[in-house]
Predict the structure.
Amino acid sequence: MNMVLKIYKNAWEVLKKKPLKLWGISLMCILLAFVGSVLGGPVIGIGLAVAVLLETSMAMIFLKGYVGEDVCLDELFDCFRDWNTVKRVLGGMGWMILWVFIWGLIPVVGWVFAIIRIYEYRLTPYILMKEPEVGIRDAIKVSKERTEGYKGKMFLADILWVVAYFIAFLILSGLSSIRYIGWIFLIVNIVLVVAVCLLAELFRGLISSAFYVEIEKKRLGSPYYEAPQTAVQTEIKTCPSCGVAVTDRDVFCSSCGYKLKDAPVYEAAEKVKKAAKKAAEEISEDVTKATEKASEGIADAKEAAQDIIVETVQKKKKSTRKTPEKKTDETEAPELSAEDNKSEQ
């Protein structure tokens, strides 16, 4: 409950700061999705594809708005910037929709399983856009793992404000029947209905983005995603590549994709990458030196073995030459002794 209230508070702070900008971008998203469905005509897939791409881009806009970054209308077309992005988003979101539909086909209780899968796959658009290392079909698996333990909180966050609205609507409707002062409550009720119609979609989008941010903060233990502050100061500048206005919080240019600076996570990743590369080079050098020493040792051992073999062969040759001489001496010795015997006789 505390997490839900914290998310509500942060989302309301964002709405207070820039309601018109988010509402305008959201309205443009709805209009473009309608135009895409109309132009698609009988080909339903075209209109659905355009709507999916726009909704995913809108989810990224809500994410940037929640963390306190500036948003602009150009970001509504981020999913259309290249074919790889289009293919990744359509493939991942289409895979998600397919599995929700399949679970919904189960008789009687299918709608229950479909709702559960919707909450399990809720982080899929953020994973597809923010984590390119995750495969297209693996995005729903990763989302399912990360939402473990959070599905109840997500459902509570979605239903709590709806219940609160209906209770307020019923109370104001009852009070509006009071004689003489009922018209005041009627006006308040009308204002409440209009406000909910205008801001409900914005609030829902910010809540979804908030859960991705909060889950990532707890998973990574990193403060990269920070809750929006009451006052965010941004310095406006231009992209050195295309000249489009950017802020000091932007990492990439939203128009041309030029890299403006390194985010903390990227800097840390680069440091780890450099350290790993250096360690690999040192290990490679050590292995090379060890290999050279081993080869030298093998060469020395080979030479020593050859010397030993040569010495052994030479000794054998000498021994074979000396053996006959000894035999002749032994045979001559008896002859001399025989002559000596004759002389003695």
Remarks:
- The CA atoms of residues 327 and 333 lie 10 Å apart.
- The longest helix spans residues 264-344.
- The longest strand covers residues 236-238.
- Residues 223-236, 262-266, 325-345 have pLDDT under 50 and may be disordered.
